Model the fold of this input.
Amino acid sequence: MEYSEKVAWLRRYRESLRREQLLTEEIGQLEAQARRVTRAISGMPGGGGDGQAIPRAVERLEEARQKLAAQLEQGQARRAEIEAAIQREVHPLRRDILTRRYILGQRWEKIAADHHLVLRQVFRLHHQAVDGLDL
Done:
C-alpha cells in the first residue's frame, strides 16, 4: 500500500465519527418533525392531509435509527482496526503523532508545539510512521 493510500485509510477513523454525528443530528431533526406532526393533529375537522403523516414520520425515524446502528457497528470495527495498527508502531513519538492526528484530529501545529518540534520534524516523523505501518 502506498503512503497516500495509508493516509486515506487512517483518515477513515475521523470520517466514521463524522458520519455518526451527522446521523445523530438527522435523528434529532426527524424527532422534532415528528413532534410537530403530532401537535398539528387535533380533533377538529379540516386539513388536507392523507392521514399518513405520523406513520411516515415514524418510518423515516426508524430508518435513520437503523442507519445509525449500522454505522456505529461498522465505525467501531473500523476504528478498532486503525487503533490497533497505530499501537503496533514501536517508536513512542511516531505513535503519538499518529494518535493525535488521526484519532484525536489535532492540527499539525498543535502536535508540533506539544512536542516542542518544528513542523518539518513532525512531518518527517509522520511520514516514517505511515511508511512503517503494517496493514
